[in-house]
Specification:
Pfam families: AraC_binding (PF02311), HTH_18 (PF12833). The protein has about 280 residues and is α+β, with helices and mostly antiparallel strands. The chain is built from 11 helices and 9 strands. The longest helix is centred in the middle third of the chain and has 22 residues. The chain is globular.
Length: about 280
């Protein structure tokens, strides 16, 4: 399989996008990222490692990752280097224009992995490839047809999830589970003084191995991930409370306000007070 990255097709500025990719060889996102729209990541073939917020997933053929707005995520190669995927980004308003009832399905559930049963995969793939082909052709009223197929896709995903028994995540590799546990620990204890050596000792891993595997699976260096978690929590506090910046910096694990301000601007692109003014 040769590398193929088709153009990303758009409907409206930020309403809908779809892209096909196939690749043979090691690859990963340059940086973990977030965005203000929903995302569907469907694997037509192969295998990928997917990090989402605080969980490491092994995504296989027939799996669908559903990513909610502003959830941090990244993908990287597994031991199997060949993969083929379709990626869709869409806004809630794009679905509402077709059916407000279907849009309400987006209100339930966190970002998650859905393992599509084999019997349902042809229907899911038919919808994805039909949307891709329609966007490529750009014929009259193609946006309306794509919206109708998107609504059908969301309804089918909802039915599939409803029929599946809720099970805890399955980890393909012991270190996937370990890194997920560490990421979850950081997310729950970001306000404390956390170091790589301390976490490595607590989870019975050598610091050098933890540093290497954490970066490989999450896309973050350990300290960088800790800072991102702290700043994301600070952003929530700035919007939801009237607490002082000094107080919020202390509550999110920063010992010095200057370090907090510098880190906040580096990650959020603005100062804490400007962020509060813009989003509060």
């Amino acid at each position: 399989m040769n590398d193929r990255l088709q153009p990303k097709y758009h409907i409206g500025e930020d309403d809908f996008s779809i892209q096909y990719m196939s690749r043979n060889g090691s690859s990963s996102m340059p940086r973990p990222h977030e965005h203000p729209y929903f995302e569907l990541y469907y694997l037509l073939n192969g295998e990928r490692v997917y990090f989402m917020d605080d969980n490491v997933f092994t995504v296989k053929k027939g799996d669908m990752m559903i990513v909610n707005p502003h959830d941090l995520h990244s993908t990287a190669s597994s031991d199997k280097l060949i993969f083929e995927r379709v990626l869709i980004g869409f806004s809630r308003s794009f679905i509402e224009e077709g059916d407000a009832g279907v849009a309400k399905l987006l209100d339930h559930g966190t970002s998650r992995l859905v393992r599509i049963p084999l019997k349902h995969q042809p229907d899911i793939e038919r919808l994805l490839l039909s949307m891709l082909a329609e966007c490529q052709s750009g014929q009259a009223h193609y946006g309306s047809l794509v919206r109708a197929w998107m609504n059908e896709l969301l309804i089918r995903l909802h039915r599939i999830e409803t029929s599946l028994q809720s099970l805890p995540p399955e980890y393909e590799h012991p270190m996937h589970q370990k890194i997920s546990e560490i990421a979850q620990y950081i997310k729950s204890n970001y306000h404390e003084r956390l170091t790589l050596d301390q976490i490595a000792k607590q989870f019975y891993i050598s610091p050098s191995y933890l540093s290497r595997v954490f970066t490989k699976l999450t896309g973050f260096h350990f300290r960088e991930y800790l800072q991102v978690v702290r700043i994301r929590e600070a952003q929530k506090m700035l919007v939801s409370s009237r607490d002082s910046v000094q107080f919020i910096s202390e509550q999110t694990g920063f010992e010095h306000i200057a370090h907090f301000n510098k880190t906040f601007k580096k990650i959020a692109g603005t100062t804490p007070l400007q962020y509060r003014k813009r989003h509060g």
